[in-house]
Amino acid sequence: MKVFKALLIFVFIIGFTGCKEEVPVVVDDSVSTFYFIRHAEKDRSDPENMDPELTQEGLGRAMHWAEILDEVQLDAVYTTDYERTQMTAAPIAVKKNLTVQIYDPAIIDLDKFKEENKNKKVLVVGHSDSTPDFVNKMIGQDKYYQIDDDQNGSLFIVEIVGGITTDMRLNFNCNCPD
Predict the structure, then answer these.
(1) What is the Cα–Cα distance from 154 to 163, expressed in whole angstroms?
(2) How far is the C-alpha of 1 from the C-alpha of 102, rounded, in Å?
(3) What SS3 class is residue 165?
(4) 122-172: per-residue pLDDT in tens?
(5) How many CB atoms lie within 10 A of CB 2?
(6) pLDDT tens digits for 117-136?
(7) Whole-angstrom Cα distance, residue 63 to residue 5?
(8) What backbone torsions phi and psi does residue 132 show, to the nearest 5 degrees?
(9) Can you tell me whether residue 7 is helix, strand or coil?
(10) pTM of structure
(11) What is the pLDDT of residues 46-72, one digit of tens each?
(12) How many Å is the Cα radius of gyration of the chain?
């Protein structure tokens, strides 16, 4: 009988300590997609000009980016405060009827940027150094490095689905006139 009581008390104690309050599972079904490109070919005729416009080839590439991203329902377009980035983004922004927003890659608040663009599709136009750096910050890895100076056809895609981040890099050739 004593063994039975002890067993009963043991089961009773185990039953209470085994009960845990159920924690509700929060499902994050958000999907945010970020498209990162470097500005198109810039005019290098004046090495003193720190803010050159695009060349004819660069203007052609900007139009090419607008064609490539034609089927993407963009919600926002960001560029740095330079002529070449804004000129690269212009055909896309006009086609999508979006206002270009200026960002500074040196001081951007990454968490705020992600939150403001949650569940959106966003184009970010930057530079040979700032674009891969921004992508690396978005994915939390040092995966991509400065883009070669003659390479203007890289498209980085960062997708955040339910808090899980994936990335890819595509390269597009442009047979744009010089």
Answers:
(1) 25
(2) 80
(3) strand
(4) 999 999 999 999 999 999 999 999 999 999 999 999 999 999 999 999 999
(5) 6
(6) 999 999 999 999 999 999 99
(7) 83
(8) -65, -35
(9) helix
(10) 0.84
(11) 999 999 999 999 999 999 999 999 999
(12) 25
Whether the Cβ atoms of residue 64 and residue 111 lie closer than 8 Å to each other: no
- Give the residue carrying structure tokens 């002890």: 6
- CA angle 148–92–74, rounded 5-degree value: 100
Q: Please provide the DSSP assignment of 111-131 as one string.
A: HHHHHHTTT-EEEEEE-TTHH
With H, G, I as helix, E, B as strand and everything else as coil, classify residue 45. Answer: coil
- Per-residue CA distances from 8 to 17, 50, 95 (Å): 14, 83, 75
In angstroms, the CA 75 to CA 103 distance is 16
Neighbours of 175 (CB within 10 A): 8
Q: List for the chain the helix, strand, coil content (%; round to 5).
A: 35, 20, 45
